[in-house]
Each structure stands twice: as structure tokens, then as C-alpha cells.
From TrEMBL:
UniProt organism field: Brevibacterium aurantiacum
Name this protein carries in UniProt: Sugar transferase
Ranges for domain Bacterial sugar transferase: 8-181
One GO MF term: phosphotransferase activity, for other substituted phosphate groups
Coiled-coil positions: none
Region (Disordered): 334-353
Keywords: Membrane, Transferase, Transmembrane, Transmembrane helix
Top-level taxon of origin: Bacteria
Cited InterPro entries: Bact_transf
Family designation: Belongs to the bacterial sugar transferase family.
Signal peptide (residue range): none
Annotated TM spans: 20-44
Length: 389
């Protein structure tokens, strides 16, 4: 296997070098078109993780307009243009990453390198994807690209690590060419590209079974591993700034603290899959959820004025707790950096502007739908002036 990894590196260098030389006229034309249709900067850079969990700067062509709240250019859908979709569908935005292959940061074939902000949320099994160099394409990409859910993608990445060979790489390369020509699987259902990875949604204790999904509301039934019903979960968009999450317990017995911990963990992971920056939870002051939230990293918001900004009326029997969903978010590398995601036409993630007052979500946990408000929190910050891809 070590011998093949040496041969693989030789093929990577030759393949990337020849492709860059042959397509150099295309690279020049794309640079000019980006300046005409999207403006400066031309390139998108972001810190990613490769073999040995080493961090490097990924290079790609920018495919979205710079964020501009005054013009209504904030979300991915608002910033995406026809030209940007063309770049993605043709995978021309990937060409600068060939430089990363030449430098040894990436391989032509391997698990897609993902943002550093995801590192704390991998399971031990998922971290094994970093035993090989990240690649331009891999098993997850030829299995549906952005349509494959995160847990399934990581399973495929680990399978690649365990079975890597020349024959497998050749099959992936051939399938990749076919998929790129068909422009298949570029975006995830309901997303411009794909959702964030906030942590695994697999659980040995509870099962979330999606009941329905519309543009504004998604509901799940929640049951235990033995099949008994525990309750239901609902995520609903109640304004441009607010996402409401609630969990209704239908059991008559006292709350099981382990079940509660698992529900909070899964809801927090689902919150990270959105564009939310903070999670805010309203629960009974004398309930078991208070200690569970503290264990999960939530901190109580004691200031009544601050609570009101989150749409919560201060009361003796209910408390409000919040946490930052991405506490160790890396600093921007340049004016086109986005720590959230990738503008990959393959299968990484979506392109987000920095979450600000116009986009952050309010997340409530409990039975108090009427407490959800439309106020702006002091924890929210205005969008940065730099572009974000």
C-alpha cells in the first residue's frame, strides 16, 4: 500500500501539471469573466484539513457575489448568479485547486477536505478520513455529491481509506468525469449547495423520523431505540431572522436525563446545519433540561433586557440559555474567505456570508412557541464588509 501511495503522488503531480498547462487559456478566460460578472477578488481561499489533520489554504474560483445587505445580497440564493451556477455546474471553479494538488496538500482522488470548524464535531471513526490526502473527488462525490447526507459521506470516506487502490482511484476518476459532464448532484435538496455539518445525527438512544418538510416547517417524531414514542420536534422559520425549534415530550414518566442529553445534542447538531450562529433555549427553571443545557455548553442569559431581545419574557419559572454554535471559528484569510463552507461543485457545503443581525436565527427549546420573538440580540453582530465564499 505504501508503494501505491508513492505512485499515486506521481500521478497527482503529472495529472495536475498537465491539466493546468492544457487548460491555462480557460483559466485566463474564467478570471476575466469573474471580474466582469462578480468583481474582485477572483479567488476564494479557505483553511481546510487534509492528511494528518494538517491545515492548508484551499484555492478555488469565486462563484458568488460579495455580500451586500443594503442590496439584499445576504443569503446563498441571493448571492448566486447564472454565471456562478455555470461555474459550479461545469466544475470550472475547481481548477485552482489543482495548485493544491501540486503542492501536496491534496490528491486528485480522496475525501473532500472540509473546513477546520468541523474538526471538533467529528466522531473518532469520521476522523479516519484524514489518514489520506484530501481529494478533488472521492467515493462520496461519485455517490451523489451534495445529495448524500453527511453521515453517509463520512462512511464512504472511511471506506475509501480502507480500500484505496489504483483500480478504485481509476473508477472514481472515470465516474467523476461522467458526473461533471452531466452536472449532477451539485446542490442538496432545499439548499443552494448543501447544509453545514454540525455533528453526527446518528444515535443509539433516539431516532428522529421526519414527518414533513415544507419551505418553512420541518417536523420529526422522536422515539427511543426500542421503538416507543418519546415526543416530537419541530423546526420552523417564523421570520427572516428567526428559526424556532421546539421539542414536545409526550411521555408521562419523569424525563430520562440521558434521553434529554441526546435530544439536546441532536438538536444542536441540526442547528449547526443551518445558517445559525447562536442557539438559544427556553426551558422550565425547575426542569432537568436546565442542567442538561449547561452540560452541553449553554449559558444562562440573566439580563431581562437581553432576554427580551431574544423574544423571551423574563419569568421566575423559565430560564433562557444560549451558546455560540461555532465557538472556535477561524479568522478570515482574505476578503473572500468563508469559515462556514465551500463553493465546491462536488460535495462540500454551501457558501455563507458571515452571520449577522439580518440572518442569525433564534432557537428555542421547549413548549413555549409564544415566546419566540423577532427582536435583535446584542449577541448578533453586523455582517463584515469582506466577501464570503
Amino acid at each position: 500500500m505504501n508503494g501505491y501511495h508513492f505512485v499515486k503522488r506521481v500521478f497527482d503531480v503529472l495529472g495536475a501539471l498537465v491539466t493546468l498547462i492544457v487548460l491555462s487559456p480557460v483559466l485566463i478566460v474564467v478570471c476575466v469573466l469573474i471580474l466582469l460578472f462578480l468583481g474582485a477578488p477572483i479567488f476564494f481561499r479557505q483553511e481546510r484539513v487534509t492528511i494528518g489533520e494538517r491545515v492548508f489554504q484551499l484555492w478555488k474560483f469565486r462563484s458568488m457575489l460579495n455580500p451586500d445587505p443594503e442590496r439584499g445580497l445576504v443569503s446563498d440564493g441571493q448571492r448566486m448568479t447564472r454565471f456562478g451556477r455555470l461555474l459550479r455546474s461545469s466544475s470550472l471553479d475547481e481548477l485552482p485547486s489543482l495548485w493544491n494538488v501540486l503542492c501536496g496538500d491534496m490528491s486528485l482522488i480522496g475525501p473532500r477536505p472540509l473546513p477546520t470548524r468541523y474538526l471538533p464535531h467529528y466522531s473518532d471513526q469520521q476522523r479516519r478520513r484524514h489518514q489520506v490526502r484530501g481529494g478533488l473527488s472521492g467515493m462520496a462525490q461519485i455517490s451523489g455529491r451534495n445529495r448524500v447526507r453527511w453521515d453517509d459521506r463520512f462512511d464512504l470516506d472511511v471506506e475509501y481509506v480502507d480500500t484505496v487502490s489504483f483500480g478504485l482511484d481509476l473508477r472514481i476518476l472515470m465516474r467523476t468525469i461522467s458526473i461533471v459532464l452531466r452536472a449532477d448532484g451539485i446542490s442538496q435538496d432545499g439548499e443552494v449547495t448543501a447544509e453545514n455539518f454540525g455533528g453526527t445525527l446518528k444515535s443509539d438512544l433516539v431516532v428522529f423520523d421526519q414527518r414533513s418538510r415544507t419551505e418553512t416547517i420541518t417536523t420529526w417524531s422522536v422515539s427511543g431505540s426500542d421503538g416507543h414514542e418519546i415526543g416530537c420536534c419541530e423546526i420552523s422559520v417564523i421570520s427572516a431572522q428567526t428559526l424556532l425549534i421546539r421539542f414536545d415530550d409526550c411521555t408521562k414518566a419523569d424525563p430520562d436525563i440521558e434521553i434529554r442529553r441526546e435530544v439536546v445534542r441532536l438538536l444542536t447538531n441540526r442547528a449547526r446545519a443551518t445558517e445559525a450562529e447562536f442557539a438559544v433555549c427556553a426551558v422550565r427553571a425547575d426542569g432537568v433540561d436546565r442542567s442538561v443545557l449547561t452540560e452541553a455548553g449553554f449559558k444562562e442569559i440573566a439580563d431581562p433586557e437581553e432576554q427580551l431581545k431574544f423574544g423571551h419574557l423574563a419569568s421566575a419559572d423559565r430560564i433562557l440559555a444560549g451558546c455560540r454554535l461555532w465557538p472556535d471559528e477561524p479568522a478570515d484569510l482574505d476578503a473572500d474567505t468563508d469559515s462556514h463552507a465551500d463553493n465546491s461543485a462536488y460535495a462540500d457545503n454551501n457558501e455563507y456570508a458571515d452571520t449577522g443581525a439580518g440572518r442569525s436565527r433564534l432557537i428555542l427549546f421547549g413548549r413555549a412557541r409564544h415566546e419566540a420573538g423577532r427582536g435583535e440580540s446584542a449577541m448578533q453582530r453586523p455582517p463584515k464588509a469582506d466577501a464570503s465564499q
